[in-house]
């Protein structure tokens, strides 16, 4: 181990309350993690990230999405959370809800010329070695009360008794059993019909508080609340039932599908609950009736992705304190930290004006082995490169590729080793070919391959990501290294990966010298 890794750097960072606070920032590790979740949210609601306009042609939409994915690939992103259901609508064809108005301006209108945006996004993400998680908003049915713009088959027209109005929106009433069953069916449409890597849900459960308004679910409570004396406990139980139903249903249909949620960062403040974090901010347990800690504790999710859009050392809600709280409550599930580069552009919290804020947050979370990665909100903000943060990812923190972390509770058996690796030089570089491995012990087919390249003097080390030349999510048994240079000697090895990115032993190495 490098000696300086034992050192620490103590920095005074400005908090959101303009009070200096000391935070211990670990030194930068020169060896980057080979396994790390590096995600980004691509929001479609109100055209936040994609498509930029509602009157684009199908070709323009596709080219725009390709450009977005290309840029994120350059940044080192290896997963996208792609919003497919903003408001009981769809960015996909094989389902029961109408096309989203955010796609082309009219709800229920298919793309013309036709294409399936989700299918297209999956294919393009996988080409670039990125996972795609289908992101659903579970309870929002409309963004306003303009019912004339709703399609004839929108669920608010078919089942008006399932909804209440709050904050100028129509929302599913989570206490109605039929609502929960319907939402599960909606999500299973995607699980069954699309090659997504995961199902992802955001922080909108019961709605955020609106001054002067009350939730209109007393009749539902009277009908379905038997056994509960407190309506808050009943509301939390309603959400819990949906999460458990989704976990059970998703994995019954596809055992290797990832399921995760992104709650607001603070589960509960210590002043509200002795088990809460040392914070003073909005919470999910009491405000949104979302018991996110329970979901992890009961193993109803594969990952939890709390949104910690705050600065290090803040007095009210500090990034470090919230993250540390979650690392004590992972219960052997994955923890990905939601980070908000949009805060730099927003320019409201003092600490985000410092170019070091996000790099230090990455160093802070990487130093804790209970954190497996980050997800950034949102695509547009990250691509804007605020304060050079995207450059920092591209040139430093995400300079080398990374595989997503394995989920051993879903699959712990790796593929067998690729066979017969050959290398042949030609005018454009080095062409590699190999044979697929023999069947794995569990019979799961190979999902892709990782190609490593070393100089003729290097020792083979597949644990160091700087030697990863290419990660491919396809079963093609060939790759062309177009970056190989004449006069150099190279050693290549190949490994196989399965759907959950368990990796085989490396192939027999092959040495080639380019003359």
The general outline is globular
**Class inferred from helices and paired strands:** alpha/beta
Question: What is the class of the largest domain in the CATH system?
Answer: Alpha Beta
Determine Rg (CA atoms, Å): 24 Å
* Second rung of CATH, namely the architecture of the largest domain: Alpha-Beta Barrel
Q: Which fold name is given in CATH as the topology of the largest domain?
A: TIM Barrel
Largest sheet: 8 strands, parallel, barrel
Mean pLDDT: 95
Estimate the strand proportion: 15-25%
Strand order of the largest sheet: 3-4-5-8-9-10-11-12
Number of domains: 2
| Approximate helicity band | 10-25%
Q: What low-confidence regions span 5 or more consecutive residues with pLDDT below 50?
A: 1-20
First-last Cα distance: 38 Å
- CATH superfamily membership of the largest domain: Glycosidases
Counted by DSSP, the helix tally is 13
Number of strands: 19
């Amino acid at each position: 181990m490098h000696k300086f890794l034992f050192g620490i750097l103590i920095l005074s960072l400005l908090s959101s309350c303009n009070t200096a606070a000391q935070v211990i920032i670990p030194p930068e590790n020169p060896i980057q993690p080979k396994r790390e979740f590096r995600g980004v949210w691509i929001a479609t609601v109100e055209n936040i990230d994609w498509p930029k306009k509602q009157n684009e042609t199908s070709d323009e939409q596709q080219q725009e999405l390709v450009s977005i994915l290309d840029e994120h690939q350059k940044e080192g992103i290896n997963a996208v959370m792609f919003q497919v259901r903003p408001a009981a609508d769809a960015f996909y064809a094989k389902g029961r809800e109408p096309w989203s108005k955010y796609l082309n301006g009219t709800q229920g209108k298919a793309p013309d010329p036709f294409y399936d945006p989700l299918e297209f996004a999956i294919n393009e993400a996988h080409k670039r070695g990125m996972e795609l998680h289908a992101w659903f908003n579970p309870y929002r049915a409309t963004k306003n009360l303009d019912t004339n713009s709703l399609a004839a088959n929108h669920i608010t027209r078919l089942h008006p008794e399932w909804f209440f109005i709050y904050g100028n929106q129509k929302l599913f009433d989570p206490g109605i059993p039929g609502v929960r069953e319907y939402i599960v069916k909606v999500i299973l449409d995607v699980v069954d019909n699309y090659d997504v890597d995961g199902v992802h849900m955001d922080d909108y459960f019961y709605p955020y508080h609106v001054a002067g308004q009350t939730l209109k679910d007393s009749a539902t409570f009277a009908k379905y609340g038997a056994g509960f004396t407190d309506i808050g406990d009943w509301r939390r139980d309603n959400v819990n039932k949906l999460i458990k139903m989704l976990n059970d249903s998703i994995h019954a249909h596809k055992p290797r599908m990832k399921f995760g949620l992104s709650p607001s960062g603070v589960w509960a403040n210590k002043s509200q609950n002795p088990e809460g974090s040392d914070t003073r901010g909005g919470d999910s347990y009491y405000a949104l009736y979302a018991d996110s800690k329970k979901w992890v504790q009961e193993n109803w999710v594969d990952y939890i992705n709390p949104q910690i859009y705050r600065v290090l050392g803040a007095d009210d809600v500090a990034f470090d304190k919230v993250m540390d709280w979650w690392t004590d409550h992972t219960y052997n599930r994955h923890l990905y930290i939601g980070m908000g580069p949009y805060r730099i552009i927003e320019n409201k919290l003092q600490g985000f004006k410092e170019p070091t804020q996000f790099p230090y947050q990455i160093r802070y979370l990487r130093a804790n082995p209970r954190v497996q990665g980050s997800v950034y909100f949102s695509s547009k903000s990250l691509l804007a490169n605020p304060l050079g943060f995207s450059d920092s990812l591209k040139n430093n923190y995400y300079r080398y590729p990374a595989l997503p972390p394995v989920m051993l509770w879903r699959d712990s058996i790796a593929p067998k080793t690729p066979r017969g690796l050959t290398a042949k030089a030609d005018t454009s570089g080095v062409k590699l070919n190999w044979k697929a491995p023999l069947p794995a012990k569990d019979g799961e087919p190979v999902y892709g391959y990782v190609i490593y390249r070393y100089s003729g003097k290097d020792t083979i080390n597949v644990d160091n990501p700087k030697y990863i030349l290419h990660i491919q999510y396809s079963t093609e048994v060939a790759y062309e290294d177009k970056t190989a240079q004449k006069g150099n000697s190279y050693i290549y090895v190949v490994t196989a990966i399965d759907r959950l990115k368990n990796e085989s032993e490396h192939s027999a190495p092959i040495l080639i010298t380019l003359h």
